[in-house]
Amino acid sequence: MSVDSHFVHKMWQQHELSKMIAGGVPYPMLSDTGGKVGRLYGVYSEETGLNVRGRFLIDPDGVVQAIEILTPPVGRNVAELIRQLQAFKHHRETGEVTPSGWYPGQQALRPSPELTGRVWERWRPPEKGPGAEPRRSGGRAEQAEMPIRHGRTAKLAKKTGVKATTRKGRGSR
Asked: What is the domain partition of the chain in residue ranges?
């Protein structure tokens, strides 16, 4: 989402993104021309009239699970975004938590009182670099009935009432 209009998004999609990504980005680009949503998320600059680079992962229940805000000179890491989406999906489906650098297919952990202080027996960080296989030892801890709380509620679509425009010019909420 940016303060640019859907016309600017269309131009960017056709003349830039489609040359970097076959077919362009596969998701709608949303327009927040007045900066209303950017203000709510704390990424709108009154001085420049622009949103800084912000990324917010919001689960199906409307809870913000992750936030990343970068100033304009630094681009976002799409591979890390995808890894985090996969990790949140894995947790939602299994109740397991994913250690630092986790990728699908690698061992995840089941939180429990028995695991406290013993994570090192179940999982170790990758030796070096992204995607390096972690060293593993031991089995998985037993599942404990304990709630895990994360994030904060962010039902912004309903709060803001902002109508965003997709790259194809259709309105959405």
From this structure: 6-78+151-172, 102-147
